[in-house]
Each structure stands twice: as structure tokens, then as C-alpha cells.
Amino acid sequence: MIRWIVVLAAVIGVVIGGFSLIDGDAGGDVAASAVLVGAVSDTAGEGNWEAENNKFFKDKRVYICLDVDKGGNAGSQTIAGYLFNVAKVVYVIRLPLDRTKYPKGDINDLIGQEGGTAQTLLQCMTDANQWYPPDLSEEKDQEIYKVILSESTHAEHVGKKIEVCGIVSSMDTDTYLVPRKVNCVCDKSQPGCSWCPVKNIEPNKDGQMETEVRSSNAGLLEMINAPKSKLKDAMREALRIPACKSVEFHVRSHYNVSDLRLSPQLNIGSESSKNVVQPAFVVGKNIEMNTPYIFRGKVYPQPRNQQAVLLLNEMEQGTDSLGSFKPSDEDLDALKIFRPTDWSEAAIGLKLKDIYDDFETNVTQIFHRQDLHLTVDLCYHSILTMNFDGQETKGWVNILIAGDSSQGKSAVAAGYDGNGGLMKHYGLGERVDCKNATVAGLLGGLHQIGTRWFVSWGVIPTHDRRMAILEEIGGTDPEVLTKLTDMRSSGIAEIPKIEKRRALARTRLLLISNSRDGRATSAHNFGIEIIRGLLQRPEDIRRLDFAILVSSLQVNPDEINKLARNRPVRQHTYKKELCQRLILWAWTRTVSQVAFESDAVTLILERATYLSKKFSESIPLVD
Q1: Angle at 381 between CA 376 and CA 384, to 5 degrees
Q2: Smallest Cα–Cα separation from 369: which of 380, 388, 356?
Q3: 3-state secondary structure (DSSP) of residue 300
Q4: What angle (nearest 5°) sits at the alpha carbon of residue 608, between those of residues 604 and 610?
Q5: Beta carbons of 234 and 217 less than 8 angstroms apart
Q6: Dihedral sign, CA of 257, 259, 260, 261?
Q7: 3-state secondary structure 63-98
Q8: Three-point CA angle 432, 435, 440, nearest 5°
Q9: Tell me, what's the pLDDT at 114?
């Protein structure tokens, strides 16, 4: 069976060895086909084509070869348009003829005048370009522009194919169903039929023309949330059908379309994910919130209000800053600066003192508070999970720093007004002011946009595997903190309303606060009572892995107010890049990469037993 067909200009008396040429007037083969390429010619004039001929080209590879002049080019486009939805693939041949010598040159000139052979035409077929309708051709050949999310909706990107990286920060609780495969029924007698793409489609056994709306078609935006009365016009626009009174549509299948909001994915340089919220629709994909993706699609104005919106029809799961952290051997070797001279308690103490002497002078300017520096570091350098005594358990920690004001709690952890603080030095973590904080802001919840409800995750789930500093938790309603209880221990955030949603929230939490009642630490019988005032329920206190109290009586005011010129000066050794690399190395350790020696396990269990006996159950910090 012949699967390849060459549609030629009218051929008069020219037979090419190895081809079977069918002249429009001859009605049969004039030469045996050695390469199984059928050749036909229509003598009705360039560009004239009867639709009933389409069925003869079903599932075949078609090459169109007409005159080289303007009329031949236009005729090639017309015939290709008829055959595109019928043939397996359509190509348009450009004959290698001198346009000056042969201004209306055709196959007769190539073979009869220029001495071409069957091999010449075969080479022309090899060099031919595959044909697409204009809108499909633009998409097929379109360059992909890689842009950042904040620039994705700039006017110069409208209609262009773009690639952006981001995470889904909010998602509609419901998805849309919009037509994908649509069968058309019409009488093909309307004024616009001559340029209607449906006219060229061979009807199926039910007399219907099968069509499909492309997933990148701007017409999808017309169909999203469209009432039934408007859907017909939206489908007609999407299928490029001109104004028509007779066409009827039968929808055979649908796309799922999700309405969502994208934010930049977290990265090492800037951990905030809330500076951009971009509306987008994702077509036909299952997508998870709080997961990095690489999206591809187009930018269009929203039909109802001209708001710039992304229509995304391709995506793949991306890699976040932790997944892309691949230190070299040289990078790891540089981290040996943090090692003590040996692993004795005394040597470890000397190394920590050396580090915090550096930080006091060159980073935080908070002196005589090295235990405070160490507390922040315990939170920053905690691993995600570990296998302890044969059981896999959480390694990320919840730590509380509480006590009197103006004692360096915030200055050591996050700094003031962007100055100082270990968070800035490390370039990692997110600071959150918890005065009047809500469950939705910390954990997540539902919010309404127009008449629709969107799910949004709070700061803790969006910083999964990372670090969040929650300041002034004393200004937060205790009930809000209670809502976080399960998430703090399980590492899973859950929104049960309307439709249950879950997300990982294995976030290192550093809680900072003065006492809830405003009293000084020294005014309490026991300073630890401040913890019970902040986290009022035992189950909330029990989720703390470590706590430290700071009092104004612990450091001599003369030391705090000492002028900078009177303080020791030392070289800055533990610089930002090294410190950040060490933390990322800790954050990317897997369970199999964390080991406890048997003596360490024994010692830990002994100390846990001792502390459990020493501390009261009324404040279950140690349990």
C-alpha cells in the first residue's frame, strides 16, 4: 500500500523514473513505482480542492509541490489546510529553482529543463518543512523564554511561551472542567465555511467532525467559569470557527483546570516566598501545594477584566535550594574550621567559645550571652530526622527563648531592622512577628476571592525543612499556639475544612518572647513559670525540645554599656559563606548519614532519666 503521496502541479508528459505519477487527466499510473511514492496532480487550478478528495489521503504522509510563484505558495497553503486534519503529516516542498529564470517554475522545469531525477525530488522531500496551521506553527516553532515569576506577566510576554519556577501558595478548593475534545455538526453552507477549519475535517460514522481545543489556547480562558449560555461562543472562538448559525457542539472529553496562585520558590539567597503572588491556571495536571515546579505556558489577558494571567499546560517537579545543594570536596574540607582539636568536652567548649567570641564582636554585638548564641545555633543546625536506638524520630527542633526585654534575644537571633543577628549572617530562615498572629498565617487556612474559596498554607508549612523565627509569641492568643500542637510534633500541617488538605511542615521553630504578663523573670518564684504563662497547655510545652530563660540580672550593666573602642577586636574567621554551607550540610543529611555510638545512646538515656526525676511534671519541659 502506498503511504507516501506527492501532490504536484499539473504534469504534462513528464515521467520520473521510480515514481508513479498520476495526471489529473490520465486517470492511472504511467510508470511503475520503485520507491513506493505515489504522485498525483489536480488540474483544477492551484489552490482549488474538493473536500471529497480528503478521504484518499487519510493517515498518509503528504508532500505538496506546486509552482514557485506567489500563486503556487498560496495554493500550497490552501491544500495543506484541507489535508492537515486528515493526513498523518503534511510537508510543503520548495523547489530549488532560480526564481529569475523560472518565475513560475514547477516540477516540469526541475525535471525537464534542469535534468532532475527521482533522487532530486527525493532530496526535495527530505528538505521540505512540515506544515502546521498558522497558530499551531507559531507554537511549534516558538522560543521558550525563561523568566522569573515577578516578570512573567510583563506586556512583552503576552502570547509568548514562557518558563517560570514557583510553588503553589494558594489553590481553589474546586477545579474547573472545560471542553477538550469536541465534535462539530454543521451543514457547511454558511458564508464563512470557505475558511472554517471544520470544513476540511472528514466526518466520522455519526456525521460529526472531531476537533480538539489545544491546552495552550487562549480560548480556554473564555470557557473557565463561563455559564452554559456563553460556552458555545467560547468553544467556537477556541476552535477558530468563524461566526456561524448552524454549527452545534458535542463535548466528548474535558480538561481539568485548577485556579491557583504562584509564589517564588524558596532559595538560599532569599527565603521569603510572599513577595509575589501571581494568578495562574494549570491545565490537565495534578499539582501539589508547597512543592517547587517548573511551569511552561503562555501569558494572556483575562477576558473578563484584562488582568494578566498565566495559562500553564506543561510542568515538571523542580528542585529547591536544598535539593540543589551539592558541595564539592573542597567545600567540605573548608568546613573543618568548625572542628575542635579533639572530641573531648573541654575541646568542644573551647571551639564554641572561639566561634561565639567572633560572633559577639563581628556579627551580633551582644556580649556575655554565649549561651544565647548556642541556643540559636542548636535550632539552626538540627537535622531533619535520625535513627536513635533503632527508631526513626524527628530531628528538627522547637526551641523557646524567653525572659526579660532588652537582653539580646531578638538581636542574637534575627537582629534589629535587618542589622546584625545570626539569621542575616547565615542568610537562612524567616522572621515572623507573631503579635496578633492567626492560625491561617502560621499554619494555613481558607480565604475567599470573589465567590470562591482558596486554600493557602501559612509560614510554617511553606518553610518545610527550613527555619522560622517566631517573635513575640506572648502577643499571640494561646488558642492559636494550641492549633499548632500536632503540626509541631508530627511535621504535618492539616486543614480539615471543606476538603482536607495536608502538607509537610518539618520546620525548625525558634520561639522568642518576653513574659506574657510583662513581669520580670526575677519577679517569679521560679523563672520557668514564664514558660507556662506563654504556652499554657502541658501538651504545648511538651512539644518544646529545649528552652532557655534570660534575666536582666545575669549580665552586669557596665559590660552591656561598654563602648566599642573599649572592647577587644578580633579577626572575623567564621564568615557567612562557611556558616551557611555548614547549616545546609546539616539540613541535607539523611537518616543513614547520622550515627550514634552505643556509648552516646547510653549516656543520653541516663541523662534523660536524671532530668525527668529532677523536674516536675507540672511544667513538662522534660518528660
Answers
A1: 125
A2: 356
A3: strand
A4: 120
A5: no
A6: positive
A7: EEECCCCHHHHHHHHHHHHHHCCCCCEEEECCCCCC
A8: 70
A9: 83
DSSP letter at 419 equals B
Residue 285 · residue 215 · CB < 8 Å: no
Per-residue pLDDT tens digits for 335-347:
999 999 999 999 9
SS (H, E, C) 302-356: CCCCCCEEEEEEEEEECCCCCCCCCCCHHHHHHHHHHCCCCCCHHHHHHHHHHHH
360: its cell numbers? 559577639
Report the DSSP beta bridge partners of residue 591. none
Is 167 buried (19+), middle (13-18) or exposed (0-12) by CB count in 10 A? buried
Q: How far is CA 603 from CA 342, 343, 348, 397, 482, in A?
A: 19, 15, 17, 20, 33
Count other Cβ atoms within 10 Å, centred on residue 199.
19
Sequence-ordered list of residues with C-beta below 8 angstroms from that of 363, at least 6 positions apart, any chain: 420, 421, 422, 425
Q: Write out pLDDT tens, residues 232-245.
A: 888 888 888 877 88
Which range of 81-85, 210-214, 267-271 scores highest in mean pLDDT? It is: 210-214
Q: What SS3 state is found at 365? A: coil
- How far apart are alpha carbons 336 and 239 in whole angstroms? 64
**Cα gap 487→587, rounded to integer Å:** 19
Q: Are strands 385-388 and 391-394 parallel, antiparallel or unpaired?
A: antiparallel
DSSP for 217-263 reads -THHHHHTT--HHHHHHHHHHHTTPPS-SS-EEEE--EEEEEEEEEE
The DSSP result for 465-478, as a single string, is TSEEEEE-GGGS-H
Using the predicted structure, report yes or no on whether residue 603 has a pLDDT greater than 80: yes
DSSP designation for 581 = H
Q: Which residues of 37-61 are buried (b: 16+ CB within 10 A; e: fewer)?
A: bbbbbbeeebbebeeeebeebeebb
Closest Cα partner for 260 from 150, 171, 178, 177?
171
In the chain the first and final C-alpha atoms are separated, in Å, by: 82
| Among the listed residues 551, 556, 555, the one whose alpha carbon sits nearest the alpha carbon of residue 524 | 551
Q: Identify which of 193, 169, 350 has the alpha carbon closest to the alpha carbon of residue 277.
A: 169
Grid cell, residue 105, equals 517554475
Find, among 512, 535, 515, the residue nearest to 620 by Cα: 535
One-letter amino acid identity for 516?
R
HEC secondary structure over 28-44: CECCCCCCCEEEEECCC
**Which neighbouring-strand residues pair with 256?**
177
Q: How many residues does the chain have?
A: 623
Predicted pLDDT of residue 142 = 66
pLDDT in tens, 141-163: 568 889 988 888 888 888 888 99
pTM for the complete prediction?
Answer: 0.69
What does each C-alpha distance from 148 to 232, 297, 355 come to in angstroms?
36, 13, 38
Residue in the structure block whose three cell numbers are 466520522: 204
What is the 8-class DSSP label of residue 199? G
HSE-up of residue 61 (Cα within 13 Å, Cβ side): 12
Q: And the C-alpha cell for 348? A: 568542644
